Input
Amino acid sequence: MLITEGIISLMTEVKKTDILEKGVFQVKYPLLIATILLLFSPMLAADVPVSFSGADVSIRFVDRTVYYPGNSPSEPVLVQITVANNGSSTVRFKLADDHFFSLDFQAVNTRNQSLEHTESWIRKRSTNRQIYFREISIEPGEAYSFTENVKDYLTIASPGMYILECSFYPELKRVSDTSEPFVRSNRLTLEVKPSPGPAAVRILPISPVTAEVLQPKPIPPDQVVTYLLTARQKSLWEQFFLYLDLEQMITRDPTRSKRFRSESENGRVVMIENYKNELRQSTTDKDISTIPVEFRIERTTYTETQGTVTVLEWFDYRTFREKKRFTYYLASRDGIWRVYDYTVDNLGTE
Output
């Protein structure tokens, strides 16, 4: 990997063709702030330079945790950006010291409404300044990574579900339109919880023993199901909910799904909380809310994103013991496996 340095001057009243000897590029148009809906973004990307062909840009959460609204420095949304050379020739690109001029983030909520940029992003992007940059060369099989706080780019003022995406500009981002070449990353689902408080703390998974917010871990599907069933045996509801994709569980029912899709973000939070209460009271999905006295993992199969775990479970009643075969369906998102559906086969009594 080779890195060299340079400098670009970002100005507002210069001819487009003026390129100075010391790597100073001057821009004709003033900066404007624009928000582009992600649904249409793939059609708007400019052609990528030949020197960047074969490169792949990807993002992932760093130390994924519970995310909250606001701009508190103690509650960042850290994302690692990786530029990987998957081609057969050297990849070259410029990386600004101030990454605002090399990449950007976009996020939309479930109503396809885009998040606004932060004031600091707007201020920097609207000010005439020199752009200091490095020229980086990546050989085939190599990758270059760095970490950014999404909250430096986007204002996350409300809880909700967002689709997050990054645009990387291998020749820097000097103007506000999409005429400059850029590459879009994969998309991540960003779930922002309500800030803990008298009204919101009740929906966070809190350990009854330590009073700490529970965090899911990147464990394989069979361990996820074992954790879930053990939590149910011990009546630890918050641990039981930890690896359930509650939104997907709700939307399995067509009537509930239609209502859920039409709700506001706050309305969806209320529906999820009501569903959890119904599970506690065994008024919905009784098969998984009933406590098994014994269980045994029978079979586990999974790919990179989908998994199936078959479990034999036994339930004791006053005069008999019932045996059932549960098939749990799991999906992996950002390295975390969660149960989103299940089926049950009755195997008789013992």
